[in-house]
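During the reporting period the student researcher (J.K.) took over the structure-prediction task from the postdoctoral fellow and processed the backlog of single-chain submissions. One of the processed entries is reproduced below for the supervisory committee.
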Amino acid sequence: MRRMAVFASGTGSNFEAIVRAAHSGQIPAEVVLLVCDRPGAPVVAKAQAAGIPVFVAAPKTFPDKAAYERAVLARLHEKDVTFIALAGYMRLIGPTLLNAYPERIVNIHPSLLPAFPGRNAIARALEAGVKVTGVTIHYVDSGIDSGPIIAQRAVEILEGDTVETLSERIHRVEHVLYPETLARLLKKENPMGITYAKERMF
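J.K. obtained the following structure tokens:
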């Protein structure tokens, strides 16, 4: 069984969805580590309650980004991690981790990329007046939400939607689509292949 780390910075709702799916056998992997860059983030307590080891450290306490990522990488190696899922991790992944896990780091983003990459994607979709947004899962590269797309699912923007109401519906889709997609990737004989990169599931 594959050994997965989840990186998260916030409340951890996608972390919880991944852990549930792993425990149920939907995802053929064991979540063996949470990496968090924000000490005190709610996701840390959730991981501890689930009995999952945590590496939590503020990057600003390291000399530079590379030093922070080397510390993360050491913990990943200690836990024999072979695959990484970002779940609300609010930092760009640098070359230290990208080179160690080529095409083995995936991310979830609350828009239909390439639309609205980066922060505040839900609010920006509302401000733009688009009728449809959604969820994207993609491989991570050195850019901002620019890696090859693995899967997407659309979410209609309703009249009167607010950031809160739209976020709630997007999160519901995320909590289904991310475990489904991770399961499909990790069940493949070569889960790091690019077969799913052009697939869009609407």
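The committee noted the following: The two ends are 29 Å apart (CA to CA).
J.K. will present the remaining backlog at the next meeting.
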